[in-house]
Specification:
single chain, 345 residues, alpha/beta, seven-stranded mixed beta sheet, 15 strands, globular
Length: 345
């Protein structure tokens, strides 16, 4: 494996909630709290010729909107544009509120925009019930599924409204912000059509959830595409960041801004390769369901919320091994999928 510059963190401390810190010329860092184990999200405000362009919006709740109000109280410039990297509620939750408040334009990829509306209405498989049905077909016990159903469909509560129009962005296109071009880079696996932004003149990548400094992005199979291979899509996507300059500054949605993107990509590739090897060895002992391998992939006790994410990730890793020809998938009379070593010819 080639040697890469080590990961470095040029900003040791996040900004105080409700305030912003400049991390590059005209690029400001905000941090908002999340009521989850992953307890924060980074948002970005870009100076835009007397206005602001915002990248991601936080959860659509009173606490987050109060922090936005604190930011706006010291920044009199209006918001021109809201860019949402992907549909997850910590990114999309306040897009409708902000766009209505300022008459701002919403920019997103088409797949992410439509997925917000599907998730808000529980359509096209974007509901807790559909998710539990997928998990049960991959070995989750009836009692655990019933416990997860008590979560309800939280998405609409966290994204209470959303614009009915958007400006669509495309791979390889650019958005002109504050006299600088930000190139659109699309990534897959974490969400349908995740948007990242690369500004060559600043040497800054707004990575969203695609490249995080200390944790691995959640990669999960979803009911809308139950035969998908999101882990391979994700690994192929992050590999593209290795073509960008080594010294670039990465602005992630979680954790601290960092340098050392090439090293981080290599770490994530090695991490998933190790997990795939461990999983393949476990399935060689006896056919396993996704529920069976939770204790293999996650060496800690999982609560209901963690199981929700862990099941999707376990299925994703098993599917990757299946599509790579290392495991074979069979469905028993009980309707449950199990994975065992593929027969070699």
């Amino acid at each position: 494996m080639p040697e890469h510059a080590p990961i470095a963190y040029p900003f040791a401390n996040p900004p105080v909630p409700g305030t912003a810190a400049e991390v590059a010329p005209g690029v400001y860092w905000l941090r908002m709290a999340l009521p989850f184990q992953l307890d924060h999200i980074n948002l970005w405000a870009l100076e835009d010729e007397g206005c602001w362009t915002l990248v991601d919006t936080g959860l659509g709740n009173d606490a987050t909107r109060g922090l936005w109000n604190s930011f706006f109280s010291s920044k009199i410039e209006p918001v021109r544009r809201v860019i949402v990297t992907h549909y997850h509620p910590d990114h999309a939750g306040n897009a409708g509120w902000l766009c209505e408040r300022f008459g701002a334009e919403l920019c997103m990829t088409r797949a992410e925009y439509l997925t917000v509306h599907a998730a808000r209405h529980g359509a096209a498989g974007y509901s807790t019930k559909a998710q539990i049905a997928l998990f049960r077909a991959n070995g989750l016990a009836e009692a655990q599924g019933a416990a997860l159903l008590t979560r309800g469909d939280l998405y609409r509560k966290l994204v209470p409204e959303f614009p009915l129009a958007h400006r669509r962005v495309f791979e390889g296109g650019s958005i002109r912000i504050g006299g600088r071009d930000w190139r659109v880079m699309l990534g897959y696996g974490h969400s349908p059509e995740h948007l990242s932004l690369w500004c060559a003149s600043l040497g800054v990548l707004i990575a969203g959830d695609m490249l995080l400094p200390r944790i691995s992005t959640n990669i999960a199979v979803r009911p809308v595409d139950p035969w998908s291979n999101p882990l391979r899509l994700f690994l192929d996507s992050i590999g593209r960041y290795s073509a960008l300059p080594k010294e670039l500054l990465v602005l992630p949605s979680h954790g601290l801004p960092f340098r050392g993107a090439h090293a981080r990509v290599a770490q994530l590739q090695a991490h998933h390769a190790e997990r795939l090897g461990t999983l393949e060895a476990a399935c060689a002992q006896s056919p396993r369901t996704a529920a069976d391998v939770l204790e293999v992939l996650f060496r800690r006790k999982l609560d209901d919320n963690q199981i929700f994410f862990a099941m999707g990730e376990a299925i994703a890793h098993l599917h990757c091994l299946q599509y790579d020809g290392r495991l074979a998938r069979t469905v028993g009379r009980d309707g449950v999928a199990r994975f065992a070593p593929a027969q070699r010819s």
